Amino acid sequence: MLLIPILYSMKRFTIILVFVFSTHSVLSQNMDNAELENIFTTMSDTIQGEPGRWQFIIKDVMFVCLTDTANNRMRIISPITETNQLDEDTKTLLLLANFHTALDVKYAISDDVLWSVFIHPLKELTREQVEDAVSQVYYAHITFGTSFTSTNLVFPGKQKKEAKRIEKGTFKKKT
Known about the structure:
This protein is of the alpha+beta class. The protein has 4 helices and 6 strands, in the order ααββββαββα.
């Protein structure tokens, strides 16, 4: 007789697990180009482009977003400086920042340009994650050369200088 309540409890637990995981899957896998464009239009001062390829500006910082829906990938990038302007010490600081202070974004070099970069699977993103990604790309861009940070969070490490914390204000269009 003890077996029946246990089986009933296991069945209820299984149903709850299926519901939780299926709900998470449906809610978290809905980002597409139309929603990205909506988010960027809301956040930016100006925007131009077409689905899958946008250029937009927030507070005088240029961003580019590229998507590849066939491979479920996207990236939000912001050009910072030409690589010929970087000395070896700065390149070392960029690598340290990638480990400690540039959290979901990274500093990267491509085509002789230093970029602030966020790369992620497209469909799995939520609106909040995209907004946070744009914010982190922005802060990594504007703190280049000073604290090299994308958020207020800093992972500890053996650094010669402790990273300065940034004051994260409202991150929206210029008014």
